[in-house]
């Protein structure tokens, strides 16, 4: 049964808030690096190298514009084609929750043994969403 709601958009909004949080955290960490004197503010003019204090946040923020772009495009396509259902909504939430968890691990311990499975969970959720869309389009 397809949904007649905008429920698919809430995971997108939740992911956008993760990006906003990361931008804020990046700004705070860069500001702290400048305040401590470990970085000259002019370094950010061309930003050829990220200071150690903010490097993990900077790298994680870049990650939010890689696989998540396929997620957002998939959500929009699923919604536009009226292919959304409880499963696609659940997959979208799995993706977003995995991104929050991946970000937390990335900007704290940065343990690859934790990061990779979290990334793969979100990756698989996105693949399944696109797979469902392909099936829906092929059979509609």
Structural class: mainly alpha
CATH class: Mainly Alpha
Characterize the biggest β-sheet.
Answer: none
Beta-strand share of residues: under 5%
GO cellular component, one term: membrane
Protein name: MAPEG family protein
Pfam families: MAPEG (PF01124)
Transmembrane segments: 7-26, 69-97, 118-138
Walkthrough of the structure:
The chain has 140 residues and is mainly alpha-helical. The protein has a single domain (9-139), classed as Four Helix Bundle (Hemerythrin (Met), subunit A) (Up-down Bundle), CATH 1.20.120. It contains 5 helices and no strands. α1 runs parallel beside α4 (86-107), α3 runs parallel beside α5 (112-139) and α4 (86-107) packs antiparallel against α5 (112-139). It is elongated, with a radius of gyration of 18 Å. The model has no long low-confidence stretch (mean pLDDT 95). Keywords: Membrane, Transmembrane, Transmembrane helix. It is found in: Membrane. Its main location: membrane.
Keywords:
single chain; 140 residues; mainly alpha; Four Helix Bundle (Hemerythrin (Met), subunit A); 74% helix
List the helices and strands and how they pair.
Layout: H1 9-36, H2 52-63, H3 67-80, H4 86-107, H5 112-139
Helix pairs in contact: 1-2, 1-4, 3-5, 4-5
